[in-house]
Amino acid sequence: MKGKEWYQADDVADEYDDKRFTGGGELIDLREKQAVLDALGPVEDKRILEVACGTGRFTVMLAERGADIIGLDISPAMMAKGRKKAQRAGVSGSVEFMRGDAARLPFPDDHFDAVFAMRFFHLADTPVTFLRELRRVSKEQVFFDTFTRPSTRVLYNWLLPMGSRLYSKRDVESLLADSGLSLAAATHDFMLPYGFYRELPGAVARPFRTVDTALGSTPLGDAVASVSYWNAKKE
Amino acid sequence: MKESLLDIICCPIDKHDLELEVDEKDGDEIISGTLTCPECGETYPIEDGIPNLLPPDMRDEVTA
């Protein structure tokens, strides 16, 4: 099954959060949420667009912090989960979900204060096209993550049901240059790939994460990280 | 979606403002309806509260 079909299947949406972000996967969820919060700063009353919002993990979190946010995705099954999450959190008033194509966004130029996409570029077949479009609708900031090569992710990729594109630092630098963006900050994490953590119960995963984080803060860390977070600004 | 979203969204193809026709509402939420681009004539459905602003060439490509 190709990535797009796999992603939109109802049963995949049903299990998505449970399979990925419980047990050891919760450590991934927390780290990703921190990365988003660190990059976007205080979000109160900011206009934010999340591309590839999925089940709204970040969308709802940012709405709870006062952002005026739109989550865009290709899968209605995923966003149905997001809508429920927003209702439970009592933030339906400041969240909108919609289906759309990240290469042809239904927004005018320079509309959002920040635009971000998590876990998107590893499934993007034409990354420059997408990044240019994200830039077009943002006034200033574009934030995204990539899975890195070389890293342990190379091995993990063999096990995945969908394709997954890996980026070297140089790949991202040329992607930014081609999209009219400049790099404001980058952070790198996860010497052990996401799939490793997901397979473990939380209590077993935590000590590995402690070692992973400790190694990550050494000079070696950035070189072996499997995930990178890129905070870019319009030139 | 809420009606205020209309101030933001536009046609994904030509970026023209869209016109809204509501079929079903639940309080402020528009549950179903149609968005129409008066410029190119394209229509975009709203289903289960979620507007489908995929360009027409992508709409039928992938279904669950």
UniProtKB/TrEMBL annotation, chain A:
- Name the CDD domains for this protein: AdoMet_MTases
One Pfam match, given by its short name, reads Methyltransf_11
Could you tell me which InterPro entries the record lists for this protein?
Methyltransf_11, SAM-dependent_MTases_sf
GO biological process assignments: methylation
Alphabetically ordered keywords of this record: Methyltransferase, Transferase
Domain of life according to the entry: Archaea
Q: Name one GO molecular function term.
A: S-adenosylmethionine-dependent methyltransferase activity
Residue span, Methyltransferase type domain: 49-140
Q: Which PANTHER family match?
A: METHYLTRANSFERASE
Q: What is the recorded name of this protein?
A: Class I SAM-dependent methyltransferase
Record organism: Natronocalculus amylovorans
What lineage, starting at the top, does this entry show? Archaea, Methanobacteriati, Methanobacteriota, Stenosarchaea group, Halobacteria
UniProtKB/TrEMBL annotation, chain B:
Q: SUPFAM superfamilies recorded for this chain? A: Trm112p-like
The protein depicted here goes by the name Methytransferase partner Trm112
